[in-house]
Amino acid sequence: MPLEGKAMTIDPLLLLQAYAIGVFPMSDDREAEEVYWVEPKRRAILPLDAFHMSHSLSKTLRRDQFRVTANRDFAGIVALCAQAAPDRPSTWINGPIEQSYRQLHAHGFAHSIEVWEGEELVGGLYGVSLGRAFFGESMVSRRTDASKVALAWLVARLRFAGFTLLDCQFMTEHLRSLGAVEIAQRDYLQLLGAAVGGVPLGAGSGVLSAGAGVAAELAFAPLARDAVTGSPLPPILTDAGPLSGHAIAQLLTHTS
């Protein structure tokens, strides 16, 4: 069903409440004004212990071919995901959706993983964290394997931080090749309830001021801090979790 009104951003609290019951917004086209609530009957998720690490992706990660950060350029990632491309002439990310997630990011609940080649943003993904659930919204690649690298980093960081659910919304062959599976909405809601059960959404706007919580901080803050300080990331597993391509590949290869 469409949201009431046109070309309006979605209230951040309403967005979080929607995710908590298994609903998310989409639009028909980049230039469309209306936004619809969607609740798929079949849901794609990526079990965090089942990421499929191909040999070529492992090599790319171990070489640290790309620099990876988190929340350094959230707006840039959303804009890149919204752009048309030869294999994607239009997208579902319209203006109101783009602005809504930028607002949610400002409250600490929407996060991005950025993949850089030098100083050029060449891929990544963004999504929403709530409790121990991460809801993937979109990913993009402007270089071979850039989006796969972003997803590998996301899976490793979510595992380290104790997340239990990575929601991919709709199944694609690309996601299936990386380990995603499709489940009934009923089963998805059980996983969702366990992952967000401790979030006090009844507290209203107080939820927004409290931020996304410890799990999100553990997952994303180390990569965000690196973007600020510019210090080199250690090539090993540290107290902050896997913080290099080599460590990401090592962790996911041993468990995939």
Automatic annotation (TrEMBL):
It is found in: Cytoplasm. Its EC number is 2.3.2.6. It comes from the Bacteria. It catalyses: N-terminal L-lysyl-[protein] + L-leucyl-tRNA(Leu) = N-terminal L-leucyl-L-lysyl-[protein] + tRNA(Leu) + H(+); L-phenylalanyl-tRNA(Phe) + an N-terminal L-alpha-aminoacyl-[protein] = an N-terminal L-phenylalanyl-L-alpha-aminoacyl-[protein] + tRNA(Phe); N-terminal L-arginyl-[protein] + L-leucyl-tRNA(Leu) = N-terminal L-leucyl-L-arginyl-[protein] + tRNA(Leu) + H(+). Gene3D superfamilies: Leucyl/phenylalanyl-tRNA-protein transferase, C-terminal domain. It is an enzyme of class 2 (transferase). The keyword Acyltransferase applies. Keywords: Acyltransferase, Cytoplasm, Transferase. One of its GO terms (biological process) is protein catabolic process. Its main location: cytoplasm. The keyword Transcription does not apply. GO terms for cellular component: cytoplasm. Belongs to the L/F-transferase family. Functions in the N-end rule pathway of protein degradation where it conjugates Leu, Phe and, less efficiently, Met from aminoacyl-tRNAs to the N-termini of proteins containing an N-terminal arginine or lysine. NCBIfam families: aat (TIGR00667). This is Leucyl/phenylalanyl-tRNA--protein transferase.
